[in-house]
Amino acid sequence: MIKRHLWQRFVAHLDPVLLTLLGLLLLVSLVVIYSASGGNWFRVWAQVTNILVACTALWIVANMPLHYLMRAAVPAYLLGMVLLIAVAFFGEITNGARRWLNIGVTTIQPSELMRIAVPLMMAWYFEKHEAMLTLKNYFVATLLLLLPVALIARQPDLGTAILIAASGFYVLFLAGISWRVILTFVVIITASMPLAWSTLHDYQRHRIMMLFDPAQDALGRGYHTIQAIIAVGSGGIFGKGYLNGTQAHLDFLPERTTDFIFAVYSEEFGLLGNFVLLSLYLFVIARGFVITANASTYFTRLMAGSITLTFFTYAFVNMGMVSGILPVVGVPLPLISYGGTSMVTLLLGFGMLMSIHTHKKLVQT
Amino acid sequence: MKRHIEFKDTQLEIHNFRLRLALSLGFVLLLLLLLLARFVYLQAVQQSHYQTLAENNRISIVPIAPSRGLILDRNGVVLAHNYSAYTLEITLSKVVDLKTTIDELAKLIDIQPGDRKRFKRLLADNRKFESLPIRNRLTDDEVARFSTQRYRFPGVEIKARLFREYPYHEQISHLVGYIGRINESEIAQLEENEIAANYRGSDYIGKTGIEQKYEGELHGKTGFQQMEVDAGGREVRVLSRTPPVSGNNLVLTIDAKLQGIAEQAFGNYRGALVAIDPSNGEVLAFVSKPGYDPNLFIDGIDEQSWNELNNSPDVPLNNRALRGQYSPGSTIKPFMALAGLYYNKRTPGHTISDPGYFSLPGSRHRYRDWKKDGHGSVDLFKSIVVSCDTYYYGLATELGIDNIYSFFSEFGFGKQTGIDMEGEVTGLMPSQEWKQKRYKQKWYVGDTVSVGIGQGYNLVTPLQLAYATAVLANDGVAYRPHLLKEVQSSRTSEKRTLGTNLASNLNLNSEHLALVKSAMVAVTQPGGTAAKAGAGAPYSFAGKTGTAQVIGIKQGEKYIESKIQERHRDHAWFMTFAPSEQPKIALAVLVENGGHGSSTAAPIARKVLDYFLLGKVPPPLLPVDEAEGVEHD
Fold first, then answer.
1. Chain A residues within 8 A (CB-CB) of chain B?
2. What are the tens digits of pLDDT across the range A298-314?
3. Which of A73, A315, B204, B302 fits a disulfide with A120 by CB distance 3.0 to 4.6 angstroms?
4. Same domain assignment for residues B225 and B338
């Protein structure tokens, strides 16, 4: 009895539907990483460790009452900004980008923190001014978004900047920013494209150029995209079979366990596999929408909506880039790619979703 | 009131929010459908295209070069063969700093400045991703030393390769020729002939001689190995293998021993000798002296050796037998005699009186006979035996250049014999038409006079004269001279014997032939111009000496051999066939600056005949006594 009671308390704030879907995706992750790493069990175990750590984070956040989350918004955002500014001045340069900050014991990537902190801060801000939202509030919220995005884009880390911008935009959109403003933004952004182009780094331009014609630099920058597309296409309808992907196993694919893991999956499991994966993602997103729609407060609605849509954005951008309809930006395939930080950030997000879903009921009773 | 408004606002707000959420869901579904459409396009519609690309990615076809066919003489003596050895090879595109790499290699492996120079030439001629040898024939020690250090040398490899070797070195160089690394223009040629694929694994191609002419037989068929490779180009495993088919072995008509004896008989003289079996056109010996070592050329000759060969006054690279053009001198007299009989300008009994010179009617210019006081009364037989010039001056003018031209053309003068070797020249058989074209001048009778003794415009190659001799020996039945006797398949024991190729039948009068031949036999007997060379021969052989002037001698001057620089001395000719009754061999010898045919050329021919007919091997060569030679032609 006691045991059962404890168990009930343990799972009280977890959402079984979401948990099952996440579990399936994480299982896919381990299976594909085993193949992509060339049968390297260490890689698989390392990912298991990542998952365990991230699940712990998920459980903690899921059990956190919502006002804890709200209270964390401002400090997290401010800390993130301070760290981003520190990175800009003292960051370590790797691969031509200044993304990491050495804080003595370890190096951290503040932009990862901002993936959660920015929408959190914006949702908090809108909640605070919920009573009377004016254009000014939207303007301030936009500023809260653009400051960190600009800093991250400068590092340069285009992928993260775009994803954070997207997550912030979702908050703005769901918070009810008027269509007229959105339209104006679209016009302004379109008009400022040439200006933005001129501020981009060469390698970013290259990546964008390659979107239109990866073949023009087939042995240089286009190589990754072309090889990834070949991997996906050669997989066919049924795939080449698990562990039988030639593109993956003969080193033609770059970053097989991380950004390009989808190519490995796609080559080995084919169109059917892709359909299954898309469906899993769709179910996760659908569950996220259900939670969002039923969220009890303004803050949680915005937060849940942003988390769900951002998750979708991750998946779409990664699969789009691997299959050649989007430029190559460094975005991992959510829940599948190898990596600790993104796993923690993602599951933290799902922890929040679960918290939003389960604490609402408690509030109501 | 306030609560009410707030409540209402919240409702509206939730309504708005859910509307936007629904829009978002629509947005999500739309993009997921877009992705799905992309996947369907790539994986269902375009699947086969990408499958091909993936296969091409992973499968690399590695050619396996066939081993080149051997070249053998008629008795099975190997003239060109292959051996396996290790080479040290560098792929330029994989090397960071070439000079440092070679300097470091030189500490492990003996690399001479010559090797470096040769390698530089190779680099210039080849593409930079090709693996090129810097050192051949590594010793086992060197292989071991390099193997332990190989991690230090990216782009440097030891490879086991088949090498061509010509064991006879200088002796057969002009005949067998050599192979060398394939150059750009040869690649273009191969591509044009659509056989470039068969050369994917080959580094070498025949450049001259038999190696060039029968490249198609010798090369063989390239095999292929389908390898699975990774992105770095490393071979992972073999998927399938089509073995190469070795090239065919060639059996030549040449008798290497005979060739060797002929070469040796030349001593230090330059010149050429071609011996033909008159009954079928098989070339028994094909000598051009001096030769060169064809082994030097296989992997690119080093600069020093090249300069030595190329700048040598002896021109060793010139294939004299095939491409050397000389005045035929008196060797044309037997043919002139036949022409005289053929055109009824002479009968066997017709005699002339030779005062030692000939003058054209109404001219005071004297065409001198080699014998100052003349030969007295001379008939056709004697004219050949003593090589009377005056007889032929007159005959030539009576025949006229047109008749001479057409009759000599039948014997192959002035055109290619059609031997199976590239680069044959035509020599020159002058005609009225030719002179008009060449000099824009009309033909003078005086021109005909000089042609009559082979000192005019006419030029022949040793091969041509040997061929003409063979045709004469075979009573006018001409076989195309050829060097290839048989092709042996490398796989099966199948042999292809090449049929003798009847070129033409001149339908000569047998009495005329008998007369001329008997006169030529008398040449080698006491009283003849080559009596000394013929002394003591246990077989009967026909011959004719000849002298080709190198410098002109003015009217009234006398040619004094001892006063003339060696290189300005006359070239000596000798043509012969033996045994005279049933000729088995016909040959022509040219000795550059040899003076008289009788003293230098005829003895060489005699040695060849002695070996060929009697199996007699001459004693090691003694220094040539240059003062020798009282006879004249």
1. 131, 170, 173-174, 176, 227, 229-237, 246-247, 250-252, 266, 270-271, 274-275, 278, 281-282, 285-286, 289, 292-293, 298, 301, 305, 309, 312, 316, 319-320, 323-325
2. 899 999 999 999 999 99
3. A73
4. no
User: What residues in A contact B15, CB-CB < 8 Å?
Assistant: none
How would you classify residue B33: left for phi > 0, otherwise alpha for psi between -120 and 50, otherwise beta? alpha
Split at pLDDT 50, 70, 90, the class of B91 is: confident
Name the residue among A30, A136, B577, B581 with its Cα closest to residue B589.
Answer: B577
**Same domain as B270, residue B210:** no
| Closest by Cα among B243, B241, B193, B238 to B220 | B243
Residue B628 domain-assigned (yes or no): no
Domain boundaries, chain A: 17-63+201-365, 65-199
- In this structure, are B248 and B169 located in the same domain? yes
Residue B89 token pair = 């090879």
A142: its two tokens:
């936009």
Which ipTM score applies to this complex?
Answer: 0.92
* All residues at 6 or more sequence positions from A13 whose CB lies less than 8 Å from its CB, including other chains: A62, A63, A354, A355, A358, A359
- Tell me if B54 is assigned to some domain: no
Mutate to test the interface with A, among B16, B18, B28 (most CBs of A within 10 A): B28
**Number of compact structural domains in chain B:** 2
What pLDDT does residue B244 have?
A: 87
For residue B133, what pLDDT band results from cuts at 50, 70 and 90?
confident
Tell me: cis bond preceding B278? Omega within 30 of 0 counts: no
**How far apart are the C-alpha atoms of B633 and B577, rounded to whole Å?**
18
User: How far apart are alpha carbons A272 and B43 in whole angstroms?
Assistant: 10
B204 plus B275 within the same structural domain? no
Q: Domain range holding B328?
A: 264-282+323-482+496-614
Claim to verify: residue B159 and residue B117 sit in the same structural domain: yes
- Which residues from chain A sit within 8 angstroms of residue B43, using beta carbons? 232-233, 235-237, 266, 270-271, 274
In one-letter notation, the amino acid at residue B560 is: I
Residue B69: CATH number of its domain? 3.90.1310.10
Number of Cβ within a 10 Å radius of residue A28:
20
Asked if residue B605 is part of any domain, the answer here is: yes
User: Which pair of tokens denotes residue A88?
Assistant: 């800009």
Strand bridging mode B71-72 / B249-252: parallel
Residue B308 maps to a domain: no
Structure tokens at A130: 């919920």
Residues in A touching B24 (Cβ below 8 Å): 170, 173-174, 289, 305, 309
Window from A116-120, B225-229, B371-375 with minimum mean pLDDT: B225-229
The backbone torsions φ and ψ at residue B603, rounded to the nearest 5 degrees and listed phi first, read -60, -35
- Which residues contact residue B87 at a Cβ distance below 8 angstroms, ignoring those fewer than 6 apart? B133, B135, B136, B137, B138, B158, B159, B161
The span from the CA of A119 to the CA of A348, in Å, is 13
Give the pLDDT score at B482.
92
pLDDT digits (tens, 9 = 90+) for A124-148: 999 988 877 888 888 899 999 999 9
The upper half-sphere exposure of residue A109, i.e. CA atoms within 13 Å in the direction of its Cβ, equals 19
Separation between Cα atoms, residue B434 and residue B24, nearest integer Å: 96
CATH of residue B350? 3.40.710.10
Q: CB within 8 A of B99, min separation 6: which ones?
A: none
A181-187 average pLDDT score: 87
- Fill in the DSSP letter of residue B105: H
Name residues whose C-beta falls within 8 Å of residue B619's C-beta, 6 or more positions apart in sequence: none
Are B180 and B247 found together in one domain? yes
pTM exceeding the 0.95 threshold for the entire prediction: no
**CA triplet B116, B119, B123: central angle to 5 degrees?**
135
Residue in chain B closest to A223 (alpha carbons) equals B231
Is residue B162 very low, low, confident or very high in pLDDT (cuts 50, 70, 90)? Answer: confident
